[in-house]
Automatic annotation (TrEMBL):
Matching CDD domains: AdoMet_MTases (cd02440)
Annotated SUPFAM superfamilies: S-adenosyl-L-methionine-dependent methyltransferases
Biological process annotations from GO: methylation
InterPro entries reported for this sequence: Methyltransf_Zn-bd_dom_put, Methyltransf_Zn-bd_dom_put_sf, MeTrfase_14, SAM-dependent_MTases_sf
A Pfam family annotated for this UniProt entry: Methyltransf_23
Protein name stated in the entry: Class I SAM-dependent methyltransferase
Highest taxon of the lineage: Bacteria
GO MF term set: methyltransferase activity
Lineage, broadest ranks: Bacteria, Bacillati, Actinomycetota, Actinomycetes, Kitasatosporales
The keyword Kinase is annotated on this UniProt entry: no
Methyltransferase putative zinc binding domain residues: 4-63
Keywords from the UniProt entry: Methyltransferase, Transferase
Domain C-methyltransferase: 243-400
């Protein structure tokens, strides 16, 4: 059995997707085949309940100069971060000369509200191009991996942070021991570490198997984040369900005894117990669900091809790498995928090498069906692409099961 990266307990593997490419390695026709491959398998720690990958991808293979993901491409995420930034300004950051650090600040979508309000802030992100987008917004960014040494440098230069915030990033970082030593060095005595991430409970409830990919090293729950905080000398004091990304959770962590834990923590732990989030039966059902979804999706795509229907992919998301490569979907079934991220356009998806085109190609002419890989932004995309439905187009989704809308 593998050893838990959080508590050194035993990790019980529940699914093996086999050899998979790094999910954001969009290649050119010339570099196709140069993708880094690894064994994508997930398990649950029998001690602390943390769901995690069995094999770790070297961080430089994922986060580098050309890392393509940009938070600002979703208007919903933009508004979500702005609303939370405003809430922090009225609460945790309401004191004298407050200071906020963001781990994984990406293109500065969250921090630009603090820049506008003149609040001291610092983003930390190792991916050069996205950090430059943040700088262009006037956001202060350090291009580096956050870890213990980075945190000590920031503490020495800027002083303690009242809030350390991180969204959709700490789950990407296997070395949480170093992260928490860094938080300990940087966080003010009564400060808070706020983490937001995809929620294991939502993933299991929706059989959202494509949320398992290289970057998502951990899938957090209230139970496992509480145990992680305790392991590294902190305490989980609040948890707040969020609707974004198909179901997320915001966790507030403080030094032990500094804050009274909110009732939500115990309530959500009880809900997780009832859902069976630590039970092997849940993972057995999940495994069956993955196989069923893949079989049905490929069968549907083959049937549509046989009938002469046109199908285009929508959203060359990182998580689409899992469904595309595990189900074996190539350009013969989905000739191209539309995506609004310029860095992905004109490139080929990792592994199966489906071409990525700008969204303008979607309507030239509209296909009969669009396979929605960005299902976590379904509402936003369907509202934007009303013309597709009006032209008779139908959406194909595979979460929570294969269905046509
Ligand atoms: N926080 C943004 C959001 O929620 O939209 C960006 C999330 S993006 C999926 C993950 C980001 O984490 C990337 O910009 C990546 O470069 C960054 N990242 C990965 N490892 C990191 C580390 N050790 N320290 C800081 N940032 C890191």
């Amino acid at each position: 059995m593998a050893e838990c990266r959080i508590c050194a307990g035993e990790v019980d593997e529940f699914f093996d997707f086999g050899r998979q490419p790094v999910s954001d390695s969009f290649v050119t026709p010339e570099t196709a085949g140069s993708e880094f491959f690894f064994r994508l398998a997930a398990g649950i720690c029998t001690s602390c309940t943390m769901v995690q990958l069995i094999e770790e991808v070297p961080r430089e293979q994922m986060f580098h100069e050309d890392y393509p993901y940009r938070s600002a491409t979703s208007a919903v995420m933009h508004d979500h971060f702005e609303a939370f930034a405003r809430r922090l300004l009225e609460t945790e950051l309401a004191g004298d000369d407050p200071f906020i650090v963001e781990i994984g600040s990406n293109d500065g979508t969250m921090l630009k509200t603090f820049r506008k309000e003149g609040t001291r802030h610092l983003g930390v992100d190792p991916s050069g191009q996205v950090a430059d987008f943040a700088r262009a917004e006037g956001v202060r960014v350090l291009t580096a991996f956050f870890e213990e040494s980075t945190a000590r440098e920031i503490a020495a230069e800027d002083g303690p942070a009242d809030v350390i915030f991180s969204a959709n990033t700490t789950s990407h970082i296997p070395y949480m021991d170093s992260i928490f030593r860094g938080v300990d060095a940087l966080l003010a005595p009564d400060g808070v570490l706020v983490l937001e991430d995809r929620y294991l409970g939502s993933i299991m409830a929706a059989n959202a198997f494509d949320q398992i990919y290289d970057e998502h090293f951990y899938l957090f729950s209230v139970s496992s984040v509480g145990a992680m905080a305790r392991t590294f000398g902190f305490e989980l004091v609040d948890a707040e369900p969020l609707p974004v990304h198909g179901g997320s959770m915001r966790y507030t962590i403080a030094r032990p005894g500094v804050r009274t834990p909110k009732a939500a923590v115990a309530e959500l732990l009880e809900r997780e117990r009832r859902q069976g989030l630590a039970s092997p039966e849940t993972y057995r059902r999940f495994t069956e669900g993955v196989e069923r979804s893949c079989t049905e999706l490929v069968r549907l795509l083959e049937k549509l091809r046989a009938e002469g229907r046109t199908v285009v992919g929508y959203g060359a998301t990182a998580k689409s790498a899992t469904v595309i490569n595990y189900c074996g979907i190539g350009p013969d079934l989905v000739p191209f995928i539309c995506d609004s991220t310029p860095a992905k356009q004109g490139r080929l998806t990792p592994g199966m090498h489906i071409p990525v085109q700008p969204p303008e190609e979607f309507s030239k002419p509209y296909p009969d069906y669009a396979l929605l890989f960005a299902w976590n932004h379904a509402q936003e995309i369907m509202a934007k692409e009303q013309g597709f439905r009006e032209a008779g187009g139908r959406w194909i989704l595979y979460v929570p099961e294969v269905h046509i809308l």
